[in-house]
């Protein structure tokens, strides 16, 4: 990112403001949906879906992941694989209990 | 001896060293918070009953804190953009705002904790509160750590702007990547703990 010109940065600033408004709107939407007290499985799906969109916006635009080097993508892919394995470890324990 | 690749990029990685370093550090942070999220899922799925976060926690204050942290992410990236546009006074303004917003976040969190403590609610109260205090406490420590670095870059650390502006801009970019990561962690903590 350091090799960007000042003009390019100025264009980026407009994107930052748009992303900021989107993040605030998505926060209000997720809070509004939570007041509907949906069934827990639906509520979890919707809340995590909205959080994922917000997280992706921050990572893509504020952290400039949308135009980053391949090495960083590779490191993050590896991290993602291990994270998913870590998050699903409890599921294996749970299914083991059901099998018994 | 001069530290290599603080400004210029390495030909093999295509990055300056600190950029690769911070991303590897953030990868380890993903695993740290991932392990705690995994524990949260295990505890919640395994519990016979689990309270709704909104029944016990202050959603209004947490929503305010979400807005505060999102705003601080914008001011952080704007402080870096100001340096890229060679505007040091605007950098000082936006970095100062970022530090202040981090402080507001911690003060609001302090009010939330204080309200719980005054009602005799501590981590030992229940599994729900144990995981709530662990996750938000660790996140709060990350906010504090980011504020310390940002304050250094706002104050004494900003002196190298005059002698080596490109190196200073890279330092601010690195601090920003950490700060945005802390924002992303909160973006997931907020619905998981307060809204479900």
Could you explain how this protein is built, in words?
The complex is a heterodimer of chains A (100) and B (196). With 100 residues, chain A is mainly alpha-helical. Chain A contains three helices and no strands. In chain A, helix 1 packs antiparallel against helix 2. The longest helix of chain A is centred in the C-terminal third of the chain and has 30 residues. Chain B is built from seven helices and no strands. The radius of gyration of chain B is 19 Å and the shape is elongated. The model of chain B has no long low-confidence stretch (mean pLDDT 95). The longest helix of chain B is centred in the middle third of the chain and has 31 residues. Chain B is mostly helical. In chain B, helix 4 packs antiparallel against helix 5. Chains A and B meet through helix 1, helix 2 and helix 3 of A and helix 1, helix 3 and helix 7 of B.
Write the layout of secondary structure elements.
The complex is a heterodimer of chains A (100) and B (196).
Chain A: H1 6-34, H2 40-62, H3 70-99
Helix pairs in contact in A: 1-2
Chain B: H1 17-46, H2 53-56, H3 59-84, H4 88-118, H5 127-154, H6 160-163, H7 165-195
């Amino acid at each position: 990112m350091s090799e960007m010109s000042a003009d390019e940065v100025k264009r980026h600033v407009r994107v930052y403001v748009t992303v900021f408004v989107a993040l605030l709107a998505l926060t209000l939407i997720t809070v509004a949906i939570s007041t509907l007290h949906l069934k827990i499985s639906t509520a979890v799906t919707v809340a995590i879906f909205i959080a994922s969109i917000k997280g992706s916006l921050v990572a893509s635009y504020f952290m400039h992941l949308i135009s980053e080097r391949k090495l960083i993508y590779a490191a993050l892919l590896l991290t993602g694989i291990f994270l998913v394995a870590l998050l699903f470890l409890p599921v294996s324990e749970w299914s083991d209990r059901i099998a018994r | 001896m001069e530290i290599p690749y603080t400004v210029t990029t390495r030909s093999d990685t295509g990055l300056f060293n600190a950029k690769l370093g911070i991303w590897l550090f953030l990868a380890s942070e993903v695993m740290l918070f991932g392990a705690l999220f995994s524990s949260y899922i295990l505890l919640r799925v395994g519990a016979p009953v689990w309270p709704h976060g909104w029944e016990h926690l202050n959603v209004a204050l947490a929503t305010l804190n979400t807005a505060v942290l999102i705003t601080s992410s914008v001011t952080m990236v704007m402080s870096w953009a100001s340096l890229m546009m060679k505007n040091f006074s605007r950098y000082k303004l936006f970095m100062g705002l970022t530090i202040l917003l981090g402080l507001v976040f911690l003060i609001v969190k302090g009010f939330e904790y204080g309200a719980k403590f005054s009602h005799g609610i501590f981590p030992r109260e229940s599994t729900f509160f144990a995981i709530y205090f662990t996750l938000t406490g660790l996140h709060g420590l990350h906010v504090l750590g980011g504020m310390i670095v940002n304050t250094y870059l706002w104050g004494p650390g900003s002196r190298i702007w005059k002698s080596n502006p490109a190196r200073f801009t890279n330092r601010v970019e690195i601090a920003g990547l950490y700060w945005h990561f802390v924002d992303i962690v909160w973006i997931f903590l907020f619905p998981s703990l307060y809204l479900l």
